Amino acid sequence: MYTLKEMRTLPPGKYRLEDNLYLIVRDARRYISFIYTFAQKRREIYLGALSKEVLTVAKQKAAQCRLLLIQGLDPKEVRDDNKKEIERKTVTLHEYYDKLLPIILNAKQLHGANSKRKYTHLPYTYIMPVLGDMPIAKITTEDIADFLKPLWMRIPPTALKLRLVLESIFAYAKKEGLYKGDNPAVFKQNLDMYLPPYGKIHETQHQRCTTNEELQHFLKLMAVWHWWFPEALLPLMIMLTVVLATRVNECCDLSWTEINLNNNTIVLPKERKKFKKGDPFIIPLSKQALWIINEIRNLNTNSSTLIFLRNDGTKLHKDNVRKFMGTVCTSLHGTRSNFRNWCARNNISSEVAELSLMHAVSPNATTRSYLRDDFMDMRIEAMQKWADYILPMEILTASFLTDVQKAKLKAVPYHEKGRGWVGLYRDQWNLGL
Question: Tyr recombinase domain spans which residues (predicted)?
Fold first, then answer.
């Protein structure tokens, strides 16, 4: 048996202190290890650098390890299991989610900031300030219910997203052994004992929509706006979106490379489609759409590929378009509802109508696998009829304006405060539109 003083002067080598307990000297390093054989494999457990305190503790740990070996257990595996159990009981929800977030984003393959916001923004805004410092292993259904209750009644859509995020977090934690028992964020036969059903506290709000007659009048004002102030891109963008029955971002981010004037079509790549999959989507161009595109081409002298780019290099942003539409009778997405209702009332087949809206032609997967026609000839006819109905060429070109109406408009400085679009919309000059 070596004294501590002797241990500090021994040359490099391995020195037995007692059964399975060794001093290892390697260059300037001196440490204690428990070396043993289990399942015909040599194993070593590091017990710490040489010191009086470490030596005392090492002897105690060696006795515990020998007892485990007598019981047929691998001391190293028992130690690792104990470490995992300690980690399971101490790792907080915030710490775990920081590590988990990249895994979730990779698994979900989300596109765009809005889609990722559910996982990147909402949890850190709502969940972490309340539950983030709690050990994930100790969070209960009651804790989650107490957290969700005030949000569940006040902002149900956000609360539902947060519950789904929590359910995903605990599903991962269960799989990794950090949480024992049932998932505490599951709703059925769990949180439903504390919270009312989502459907009973929240009614889905659809995008604002108006009648076809009001939409026709609104587009008439858009046409007058364009005649009065041709440099404005906003009325052109709104009219083009309506006659194409597209989504706001699909039209606002349109580029010249996507427009094929030889075939009178727009070829939308799958990256710009809502679900980012499938073949490029072809949108037929009506006479009205071609006229609007030609007007934009006359205005757009910028070399950029985007068609709604001002000559000063600034882009017509979809958020600004949505903000503007918040002041009028309808939303742009709501005009797609006008188109769908018009199709139903004018004997346009459901397949043609849904495909024109870039929807699946059927909710049934088997039907979709067989129904592969793009119905292009029928869609060309339908889109032209829709454009003729909602925005006739006479209205679009503002040829209906009388000389008196034109004189009144020309007499109004467009940029004068309180005038412009607001004056036109409120008919401040009694134009009789």
Answer: 205-383
